[in-house]
Dynein assembly factor 3, axonemal (Loxostege sticticalis), 460 residues
Amino acid sequence: MFWGITPALDLQQEYLKHGDESAYELNFLVIGGSDGRHLLKTLSQAYRHTRRYMNIFVVDGCPELIARQILLTSLALEKTTRCGLLEKTRRWLEIYGNLLLRPPTSRYLIAKARQLVGMITNPEYMSCILPTVSIDQMKYRERDYLESLVNFWTTGNTNQFNACELWEHRIRHSLGVRYDNRAGVFDWDYHMRLKEIASQICFQEYKHFREHGVAFTWLETEVCRPNVTFAAGVCKCGDRYLHRGYLGDMVSSPYIAFGLDCDDKDMLKSSHGVNYKRATDVSERNVMRMLYELENRQAFDANALNLETEKNLGMVVLSQFDARISEAGPEVPLLLREDRNTYIDVDYGKVHFLSLSALDHYPHKPQFQGLFHGVFVGHNMLSRVKPSVWSMARDDAIVVMETRKYMVELKRDDVKAFGDQIQQAATAAQCEKITTFDPQADDFARFLIRRKSESTDIAV
C-alpha cells in the first residue's frame, strides 16, 4: 500500500514490443498500480515513440491511493518555473516515500491540498486547470471521501497525525517479542532476502527506513513534519479528524519503483560489493529524468545540467536521530498560483481515475468492450479481477501482472505459489505467455490475449 513493489513501466513501450505500431490511439487499464509510477513513466517517455494519444484508466483498491496518485501526478505536471528541477524531484520523492517531511515540503503539501479540494469538488475547474487528470467517472460518494481526505491533509502542521508514534506502534505490533532485537530483524531481512534481489539498496538506508519510516534522505536536509498523505480511514468528527493510522508497507521499502536501475550506468557502480550510490540517489536521478522529459519532451543529459555527481554516499553510515515531530508555530499559509500556465500541457494523453466498482460494472458497457490495448494488474488486485474484466481488452492486448518477488516478508514458497495464481488468472483471460517467467526471479509476467473465438462470454 502507498507504493508499488515492482519497477516503473512505460506501458506504451510494453505494448509496442508486440502490438500494432500503426495505432494512432492507445488505451491502457492500470489495476492496482498503487502509486502512479507507471503513469509518470508512460507520459514522460511518450516523446520517444511515434506521437499517439493515450488514455490511461486507473482503478485502485482504496480512495487513499487514488488521492495520493492525483497529488503526485499534479506535482509532476507542475512547471519548474515554481521551483527548480532538483527541488521538485526531492519534494516528489519526500511525499512519495517519507513518513516525515521537511518544513518547506509540508507547507507546500498543505497549500497543494487546498488547491486539490477545489479541483475535486469542481470537476469543471479541474478540467480547466489540470486537464490531464479526470475524476469524472468516479462515484459521488467516493469524491466526497476524497474531499474529506484532502481536507485532512491541510492539517499537516498539527498533531492530528502523529506519524512517529504510529510507525513505532506498527513496528511493536508486527515484531512482538522481537522488538527489542529489531536491529537484528532488519539485518536478517536485508542480507537474507533483499540484497540478493535488490542489491542497489544499501543496508544503512534500508535500516533507516525500517526504523523511522524515512526512505529518502539528503545530507543538507532535516525532516520533522508528518506526511499526512499516509493516513488511512479518515473521517471528520466535529472540528477534528479520526483516522486508522498508518497502514502501509514497512518492509519492502519505497526504493523498488525507481531505485534499482538507471540509464546512467555510472550510478550503478560498486566496489567490493559496496555501492557508490544509494538507492536514494538512483531514485532521484530516475525521477529527475522523468520530470525533465515530461516537461521538455527531449532526452535528459545529466552532464549538460551540471548535476553534482561527486558524492558517493553508498558507504556512508547514517547516524541515529531522535525521530520526532516538531511543534509548529503560527505560519503564513503558502499560496500556490492557480491558472492553466501552472501545469505542463500534455496534449497526448489523459489519466482517468475510476471507482473500484468499475471492475464489476464496466465490462457490461458496450463502449468498453475490446477497448484496452494493455492491462496492468498489481499483485494486491489480482483476486479482484473477474473473468468478465478481460472482455474489455482487445485481441492481442498485452497483459502485465506483477509478481511478489520483492515482498521481503514472504517466504520463497509463498512467492512461488503466487506465480501459480498468476498463471491461473492468465488462463482465465485466454492469455499466452510471451516468455517463460520465474516468480522468484522476474518482476513481471507478460502475456498476450489470444482468444479462441471472436467473442468472449461475460460472466454475470
